[in-house]
Amino acid sequence: MTDASASASSAPEPTSPTSASPVVLGQAEGESPVDSIVKVLRLDTPVTSRDHTYITGRSISFPTKRVYGGQIIAQSVMAASKTVDPDRLPNSVHGYFITAGDINQDVLFDVENLRDGRSFSSRRVNVTQRDGAILTVIASFQKQGQTGVSFADPMPADVPAPDTLASARDLMAPYADTSSFADYYVHQSPFDIRHVGGTVMLTADAASAHEDSGRQLVWMRASGRVDAPQVMHRALLALGCDQIMMEPVIRRAGLSFITPGMSYASIDHSMWWYEDIDINDWHLYVQDTPVAAHGRGLATAKVYSTDGTLVAAMAQEAMVRVPAGVLEKDTAAQ
Description:
Elements: E1 24-25, H1 33-41, E2 47-49, E3 52-57, E4 59-60, H2 69-81, E5 88-97, E6 107-116, E7 120-129, E8 132-143, H3 168-172, H4 180-188, E9 191-196, H5 206-210, E10 216-222, H6 230-241, H7 247-252, E11 263-273, E12 283-293, E13 296-305, E14 310-321, H8 324-333
Parallel strand pairs: 1-4
Antiparallel strand pairs: 2-3, 3-6, 5-8, 5-11, 6-7, 7-8, 9-10, 10-12, 11-14, 12-13, 13-14
């Protein structure tokens, strides 16, 4: 948190694409993909005015040429964390995506101090660019060392170890020269992602659609070493989960990410942390989807460490639209 000498009378504006510093941060020579992400999440120096703290951030390169949703959720967590006592860590975040962000503009995080209680601190983060708001977030931080009720669903039994499974990087490698998304997973993704069973990245899962189940299991860890405070590890988990949160909806619908004419976007995202995170270790995502209607689908996930501890949970609603002819064709084929 900045002191009074760093305060400003009004909010700074995001810089234009002609800013002296790079608006899009790429991967420098010798850096791992996760090093680039950590650099983006560190953000600029906070400027404080009354109950608001303003922090500027930059974006990572992404195939859509739009600001990646997981990035600004994670950056919002990091921005809010700069305004709370160090002994308070993020316990939940709830965000609404308002519109797609422009990767060629800086991102401004306006952190409002809502309340500092004995156990919890609440912050609102409004994320804007020159063209207006792109995300609004409420984040909660809890003082560490508190006691109370404690229980958890068990981790699924007999899950194949991640080192026995193909990585998304390996699966996408044959397509890296012709697909920007495949190239991203091969060269830029900060996470090693390994699906238990088939992945809807490339083909539809007809069995899942037939069984009316979008359930899937996915292992994930950072693709490079992260030595950083716990808040960074929690923010990285928020960023990583967004790469796969929509998949159960796609799976249960009998679609894939290469279904012709399909459009999709995250609408909102909620996440809860229950234990410390080590993003260097494998985590198992147990995902499902209970409902989809009117072009919207709800996905949920429970996240386990390798010792079986349930460390986090999350939910996301996404817009998924497919041309009527494609849906009718897929339904008839099942």
